[in-house]
Amino acid sequence: MWIQKEILLQPRQRGFHLITDEVINNIPELIDISIGSLSIFIKHTSASLTINEDADPTVRIDFESYFNEAVPENSPYYKHTIEGPDDMPAHLKSSILGSSITVPISDGKLNLGTWQGIYLCEHRNKKPTRKIVITINGK
Amino acid sequence: MWIQKEILLQPRQRGFHLITDEVINNIPELIDISIGSLSIFIKHTSASLTINEDADPTVRIDFESYFNEAVPENSPYYKHTIEGPDDMPAHLKSSILGSSITVPISDGKLNLGTWQGIYLCEHRNKKPTRKIVITINGK
Amino acid sequence: MWIQKEILLQPRQRGFHLITDEVINNIPELIDISIGSLSIFIKHTSASLTINEDADPTVRIDFESYFNEAVPENSPYYKHTIEGPDDMPAHLKSSILGSSITVPISDGKLNLGTWQGIYLCEHRNKKPTRKIVITINGK
Description:
Three copies of one chain form a homotrimer.
Chain A: E1 2-9, E2 15-18, H1 20-25, E3 35-42, E4 47-53, H2 57-70, H3 87-97, E5 100-106, E6 109-110, E7 116-122, E8 130-138
Antiparallel strand pairs in A: 1-8, 2-7, 3-5, 3-8, 4-7, 5-6
């Protein structure tokens, strides 16, 4: 069984945001899959997807602080600067964190760990709308 | 053909550890797959999975040194500190390295390069037990 | 439907290189897949794959500059030094960026965003030949 959907996420401000429920609400078909795999792919180069702690919101604040320090704006060697100081760091963060995630499906549900959630990592200031492709394969 | 298993890895101390054999020993069914794909997903937010050099153990020591420097403990801006100084860096390392790997299956075997092995990246001090989900799809 | 190919990429110098066309030219079968998934896996531990901006070549130059700064050569704690100063940083960069990418297939094409391309991230100086495994699954 193959299911594929392209959806627009709600626009979010720069930072790390839990989107687990927004994803799951878009795939009611999950319940029919006993074994399978879900991939989510983000069609942008200045936002990314990752899986991390979903309980304490300060984790997501610390993610934003850490990545701003690790991938600074205005590095003197940046050549790609025409789209603003947040743009080149956004491209770098997006490759460090990755443009897709893969999660196992078991017994009709995403088989995430107790504390795992799906993060949208929004690296731009301008709060853009982000498109993701959800692909489910299973039986 | 779909095969899925949830297994407990042997607990390991903080650092980078080769688990290729432990994974392969759990999936004797591999031999029946001529073309396919293996995904391994770790159900935790303070440990991760990656693929790297499996021959020289000093590579894994250098990984631990590098990531401790790149993602320091006790950064003054961390807000998520209640679970100890190794916790927030563990979450960050886990998203930098990733919670899953995907490896092609060819002719009944994982199609890894000559020097590639699967690493469990254990980012916590307390030597926890880690659960992984192995999903194989192929024909 | 399963398709799998192991191909040799043209050797490229250290840096970040667009390989989208080289990949697509090797998989004319894509046109027959209405829904599916493509995985590309690199069989090396000192080169990696990522997806990022394909329009402005200075983005790829900034990637090289950034990763050289973030993962320096000759760190005093490196123990794995016998293969030259570019080797241990190459292993680290390869795990930060990742050894595989997964891209959705929709209506006979890779469903990449407007500005997305596939990068070969070559982390060694010696311009080696790199082997990738392309695995397509779909219907």
